[in-house]
């Protein structure tokens, strides 16, 4: 059976349809003010639901497979600076619930800090509800949190790194049982207790889509056990050449661990794409973002991600954090597609892209990059992509 026939086979789940693509394609939504770039260079990008809804509908019409919102808990002023970077930050669980009614095909993934006071029964019920609202298109990006300041916002003590994943394993195991079992669940766990707990309706297929972004040993052990999609970061920072050298060993380790557990996972990475008709124009935009850096916000943003006990992001420089994203792909449409091809060869099954000026950059991407991706065999036409 051809890949295209497999994608359109009756009864195929939304996730399986997406996994049949040669390269998955997602959009990171800018639901925080300033999105990924602590820069004051001109742009129209906005954190509001209306703007993100426009991005999502446009991405779906272009044939993108998923959209994704990260979660942020910030104090007054966000990361600081004149731009008060990320002070405004909407909740991705509520945003994706709102997007369910506006979309028909695209997967909707919410990030939730599950250790910030949640009970598995709450999230099992909310997730099953959004799954029903969306026709089985909702996914949970489970994060455990690593910032002491965030734990303190909820009146909690920071939890040791590996212990966080022990707790996450119990949390998600309970959720999966609530989603799949048709009897009341009573359980006296190490961290959560339930008595006669029940969730109905059940999510399509008996569970919601599960996502995780991990790099540590404990995090990856959790991810390959539970997750359908695993986001990775480049161990060598945002430089494309260095990332493509470092990623193969990292992605091979993850895929081998998943294979040993009998799991069928996909690995995604987050490129920041700056694409213009000429390389000179793309480089000029890259330089403009750096020139516009808010020095206070950029420094605070950089220090936050390099100073915690997480293992991701350590190799990125402050300048790379100012641009944003995990790997930078800068150049012509042909160079962007070549960058995607190289990341795929390095073991990445999908690209979760972000932009600086989202709507115009996404429109240009759809017009100039997506046709080249199809020509290169990285994308198959879907029912909406063909009509775009």
The 3D shape can be described as: globular
Strand content: 5-15%
Largest sheet: 8 strands, parallel, barrel
Number of helices: 14
Radius of gyration, in Å, reads 20 Å
CATH architectural designation: Alpha-Beta Barrel
Strand order of the largest sheet: 1-2-3-4-7-8-9-12
Task: Provide the succession of SSEs.
Answer: HHEHEHEHEHHEEEHEHEEHHHEHEH
Helix percent reads 40-55%
Mean pLDDT: 93
Q: How many structural domains? A: 1
Q: Segments where pLDDT lies below 50 for 5+ residues?
A: 1-8, 383-388
CATH topology: TIM Barrel
User: What is the number of strand segments?
Assistant: 12
Structural class: alpha/beta
User: CATH-wise, what's the superfamily?
Assistant: Luciferase-like domain
Any idea of the CATH class? Answer: Alpha Beta
Separation, N- and C-terminal Cα atoms = 26 Å
Summarize the structure.
It is built from 14 helices and 12 strands. The longest helix is centred in the middle third of the chain and has 21 residues. It comes from Hansschlegelia zhihuaiae.
